[in-house]
C-alpha cells in the first residue's frame, strides 16, 4: 500500500510538527542503516553462494573417490568388513559442533567437525586388507569434512536469504510508505499553520479597524459635545436660550444666502 498521497490524522499544531519532523529524521536514519545492512548481507550471500557452488563441484569427486575406496576395501577384506569395523569402534571419533557468527546483526549458524580422542581401531583389517581399510577411512573422513562444510553453507544461505527478504521489505516500507506519509503530514501541518496565521492576521486587521472606527466615533462625539458646551456657554453669556441662539444663527445664514443670490 503506497503512502505517496496519504498522511497521518493529526492535529496541526507546532508541537505535532516538531514530533513529525523528529520521526522523519528517525525514519531517514533507519532507512540508511537498513540499506547498508541489506548491502552487507547481499555481499555475504553472494560469497556463500560461490562457496556452495565450488563445494558441490568438489563433493562429486570426493564422494566418487570414497565409494571406490569402499569397493576396493570390500574386494580385499571381504564383504563382512562392516561387522569387523563395528566391533572395533567403541565411540565416534569425528563429531560435529555448532556455533553462531554475527554478520550485520544476523546470526548465521556454523558447523565444524572435530576429532575427540585418538583412533583406537588401527588393528582393523590386520588379517587382510588393512591398508585399503585405512585408505577408505581417510576418504570418508574427507567426505564428512566436505558434507559438514556444505551443510554449514546451505544453512547460512537459507538464513541469509530470509534475512535479506525481511530487510528489503523494511527498506521498501520506509522508502515508499513511512517517509512519504510523514512528509505529506508535515506539509499538511505547515499548510494549516500558514492558514491559521493568515486568519489571525486578518482577524487582527479587522479588530484594528473596528477599534479605529470606535476611536473616531468617540472623537466625533467629544467634538459635538464640546461644540454644544461652547454654544450653551455663549448663549448664557448673551442671556438667550440655546434654541434661540440656534434660530438666530439659522436666520443669519438664510439672510446671507439671500444676499448672495
TrEMBL record:
Keyword flag Thylakoid: no
Matches recorded under PANTHER family: V-TYPE ATP SYNTHASE SUBUNIT D
Family matches, as InterPro entries: V_ATPase_D
Name of the protein in its database record: V-type proton ATPase subunit D
Name of a matching Pfam family: ATP-synt_D
Keyword tags: Ion transport, Transport
Family as reported in the entry's similarity comment: Belongs to the V-ATPase D subunit family.
Taxonomy, superkingdom: Eukaryota
Amino acid at each position: 500500500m503506497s503512502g505517496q498521497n496519504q498522511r497521518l490524522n493529526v492535529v496541526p499544531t507546532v508541537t505535532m510538527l516538531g514530533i513529525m519532523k523528529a520521526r522523519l529524521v528517525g525514519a531517514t536514519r533507519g532507512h540508511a542503516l537498513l540499506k547498508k545492512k541489506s548491502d552487507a548481507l547481499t555481499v555475504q550471500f553472494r560469497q556463500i553462494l560461490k562457496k556452495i557452488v565450488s563445494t558441490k563441484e568438489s563433493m562429486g569427486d570426493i564422494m566418487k573417490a570414497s565409494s571406490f575406496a569402499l569397493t576396493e576395501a570390500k574386494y580385499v577384506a571381504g564383504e563382512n568388513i562392516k561387522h569387523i569395523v563395528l566391533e572395533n569402534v567403541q565411540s565416534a571419533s569425528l563429531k560435529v559442533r555448532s556455533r553462531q557468527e554475527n554478520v550485520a546483526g544476523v546470526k548465521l549458524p556454523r558447523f565444524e567437525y572435530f576429532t575427540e580422542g585418538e583412533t583406537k581401531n588401527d588393528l582393523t583389517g590386520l588379517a587382510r586388507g588393512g591398508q585399503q581399510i585405512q585408505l577408505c577411512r581417510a576418504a570418508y573422513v574427507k567426505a564428512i569434512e566436505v558434507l559438514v562444510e556444505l551443510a554449514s553453507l546451505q544453512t547460512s544461505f537459507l538464513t541469509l536469504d530470509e534475512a535479506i527478504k525481511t530487510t528489503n521489505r523494511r527498506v521498501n516500507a520506509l522508502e515508499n510508505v513511512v517517509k512519504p506519509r510523514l512528509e505529506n503530514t508535515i506539509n499538511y501541518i505547515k499548510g494549516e499553520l500558514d492558514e491559521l496565521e493568515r486568519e489571525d492576521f486578518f482577524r487582527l486587521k479587522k479588530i484594528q479597524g473596528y477599534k479605529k472606527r470606535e476611536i473616531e466615533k468617540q472623537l466625533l462625539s467629544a467634538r459635538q459635545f464640546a461644540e454644544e458646551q461652547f454654544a450653551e456657554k455663549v448663549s448664557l453669556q448673551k442671556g438667550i436660550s440655546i434654541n434661540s441662539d440656534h434660530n438666530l444663527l439659522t436666520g443669519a445664514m438664510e439672510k446671507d444666502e439671500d444676499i448672495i443670490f
